Amino acid sequence: MASLSVPSTLPRVSPAVVGAARWRRPGVRVRSRTAAAALGGGCGAGAGGIEQHHGDGPRSPVSNIGKSTNILWHNCPIGQSDRQQLLGQKGCVVWITGLSGSGKSTLACALSRELHYRGHLTYVLDGDNLRHGLNRDLSFKAEDRAENIRRVGEVAKLFADAGIICIASLISPYRRDRDACRALLPDSKFIEVFMDFPLKICEARDPKGLYKLARTGKIKGFTGIDDPYEPPVNGEIVIKMKDGECPSPKEMTRQVLCYLEENGYLQA
Hints:
alpha/beta
């Protein structure tokens, strides 16, 4: 095998090449500062601007929250208003509540589809879907139901902060738990939609066969049968029967869309 020949000295670089390299190097820094200015001028005057702290306010003091100790809230330079401008909409939570079989998931999907067609970013948080992952460790006991709603409320808050129209579809039977979620979202960004349909209508539909199981005692603590449902007192939207007829998914969607349009959620 032939050996490679390594020169004893490296070839000299042309002075012209060195001069060109020296001329180009400062230009990169100038372009970086220019780009930073175009993005909002948040990188500071020095080359180490990326390490500086930015945000909506000063750093919060180290604190203890729940079982978490010595934690610090970190502010970021991009806030909710920036994300909303990017998406051309206002982040909010459309919280659909009602008995099983009242049409919550149907409305959630129809609303999400219509908003998507109109160019708006949405995400549906469905109660059953979340119990496949995030809330799979929770039962349907009262205390677990409260924790279930608390977790969904916190996730929905994050989606709204991201500028997304979050559609939460859950029975959420207890008023205090829904009110706690509302309290997480200031400035009227929590829109409660009550599916106000009689129990007999929901039970007649029984899409999952759960009412039959509850009536025969195979399911305990089922909302509407042996566990109460507390309807909203001052919900933003109430969807109910008209002239003895249930509204179609299209009609229900139109009702929610009108509210979103009239209250400026579909524009930044």
